[in-house]
Amino acid sequence: MPTPNEQKLAAYLKRATEELRRTRDRLAELESGDDDPIAVVSMACRYPGGARTPEDLWRLVRDGADAIGDFPDDRGWDLADLAARCDTTRGGFLDGAGDFDAALFGMTPREALATDPQQRLLLEVAWEAVERAGIDPAALRATPTGVFAGFAGQTYTDMDTGPDELRGYLLAGSAASVASGRVAYTLGLHGPAITVDTACSGGEAVGRAPARASGGGCGARFPSRRRRCWPRTAGTAATGARSGWAR
């Protein structure tokens, strides 16, 4: 008959063996996911030359169209002053960059005005990408969907130069780190929300999405890249871009 110490040792070894078995099974489960295929099910974009959809972008490329245009006249800019101070009066501009349905994304007009247009555009294209996939955005709420955004520096506005009436919104509105979290918060996503700032190599964020998916970190992903230049003066920056591009 085993002694009390032998019984304790046997119980401990049984428990340790069971834990090792569960660890081995979990490791095998994670490793088996490395070869799972990654599918791109939808895209959305904004580009100069009136490209508001992937189909528009393809037409630009197919037709060899010139997406460079004159300074836009819907941004509240002093075009005569810009022409006198700038080496050129042409560039790549997004159509309707100041148009934004703030109510759709649960924002007040004042908060929208204080929010970097890069964040506003990210919200728009994320929403459109979901709809283009045939998914109701509300269906993603509380799911482990991740957001991975490539973001670069901007000069839209900040805590020092922004008008007083926008002061309460400027911190979140001007911080690049908030971009991915704003999408996750608006759509109610519970997966990782990561903003990567590697300047013009923002595609690094796109590469992180499959890795997190295969590692079990999230289900669906929103990989995105953003880069845009905005005028610093709050009076003219309120409604759009001076130059830049987006992916």
Written account of the structure:
- With 247 residues, the chain is an alpha/beta fold.
- The longest helix has 29 residues.
- The N and C termini lie far apart (74 Å).
- 30% of the residues are buried.
- The C terminus is likely disordered.
Question: Which features characterize this protein?
Answer:
alpha/beta, disordered C terminus, four-stranded mixed beta sheet, 41% helix, two-stranded antiparallel ribbon, 247 residues
N-to-C span: 74 Å
Question: What general outline do the C-alpha atoms trace?
Answer: elongated
Which structural class do the helices and strands define? Answer: alpha/beta
Instruction: Give the ordered list of helices and strands.
Output: HHEHEHHEHHEHEHE
Radius of gyration: 24 Å
Query: Uncertain spans, ≥5 residues at pLDDT below 50?
Result: 229-247
The number of E-state strands comes to: 6
Quickly describe the structure.
By secondary structure, the chain is α/β, with parallel strands linked by helices.
Topology:
Elements: H1 4-32, H2 54-63, E1 69-70, H3 79-85, E2 90-91, H4 109-114, H5 117-132, E3 146-150, H6 167-174, H7 178-187, E4 193-196, H8 204-214, E5 221-229, H9 234-237, E6 243-246
Parallel strand pairs: 3-4, 3-5
Antiparallel strand pairs: 1-2, 5-6
Helix pairs in contact: 5-7
